[in-house]
Write a structure and sequence with these properties.
By secondary structure, this protein is an alpha/beta fold. The chain contains 6 helices and 15 strands. The chain has one domain: Purple Acid Phosphatase, chain A, domain 2, CATH 3.60.21. The two termini are about 30 Å apart.
Length: about 240
């Protein structure tokens, strides 16, 4: 995988494909993977905003399930932002789960925001991990090395554009795929930071061989490896050193 032209989807190898909108497609099991929805975020921070992201997230997923003919939808942890929602907000979240279950098989992987209860009151049955097409899917808040390629969320990786602007991004290495966060509220973890390198290193992945695919609503943009981007950023910051 190398830097190239934008596309609506890009192969990450092993039958996994990055889709525009930050969704992951697993061909062998016809599974659509969505990470870090953080439903109910608006109320969890103090009811400062209406719960508009619930319907928007659901419509995006419904459209993708129909477009790809998904047989399974996997929600990869942090489906909700908090287990402590008002009755009204909780009913809205439960309603979204019913809508998603009507589309295809729904598999919910618990994340750290699901807490000790694993969000069962709002989400129904959750699992800690699932295996699909030779890959181990779990939220990613409890890193470990395994014989399979990991597919995780949790990190909210993003490409920083300057100021407050950033774009969600996939990270893809032989050992690991990180799916970007679906929530509209997170700026994410800058993929050029030490925190990001340490996080992927916990799975055995290295910056030099971990590729970056930024994902807007319409396109995926391959940017080469984290190492490539870091070198380019240094060259732009200190051009006199390269003369």
């Amino acid at each position: 995988m190398s830097a190239g032209a934008r596309a609506t989807s890009l192969s990450l190898g092993g039958g996994a494909t990055a889709l525009a909108g930050g969704l992951l497609w697993i061909e062998k099991s016809a599974s659509l993977v969505v990470a870090d929805l953080h439903l109910g975020y608006e109320e969890a921070i103090g009811a400062a905003l209406p719960l508009w992201s619930l319907d928007d997230s659901c419509k995006t997923i419904e459209a993708a399930v129909a477009a790809y003919g998904a047989r399974e939808l996997i929600l990869l942890g942090d489906v909700i932002h908090s287990v402590r929602l008002s009755e009204g907000a909780g009913d809205r979240v439960s309603g979204v789960m019913r809508r998603l279950r009507s589309l295809c098989r729904l598999t919910i992987v618990a994340g750290n925001h699901e807490g000790a209860t694993r969000g069962s009151a709002l989400l129904g049955e959750c699992v800690e991990e699932v295996e699909r097409a030779g890959m181990l899917l779990h939220h990613g808040d409890r890193p470990r090395i395994a014989g399979l390629r990991h597919v995780i969320g949790h990190l909210h990786p993003s490409v920083a554009l300057g100021g407050e602007q950033s774009v969600p991004a996939f990270l893809a290495a032989r050992e690991l795929i990180v799916v970007p966060a679906a929530t509209p509220y997170s700026r994410g973890l800058n993929i050029l930071t030490r925190d990001c390198r340490v996080a992927i290193g916990a799975y055995g992945a290295r910056a030099s061989s971990t590729h970056v695919i930024a994902a807007t609503a319409e396109h995926c943009y391959p940017f080469g490896s984290i190492g490539d981007l870091a070198r380019a950023a240094r060259a732009l910051r200190f051009p006199e050193r390269n003369r």
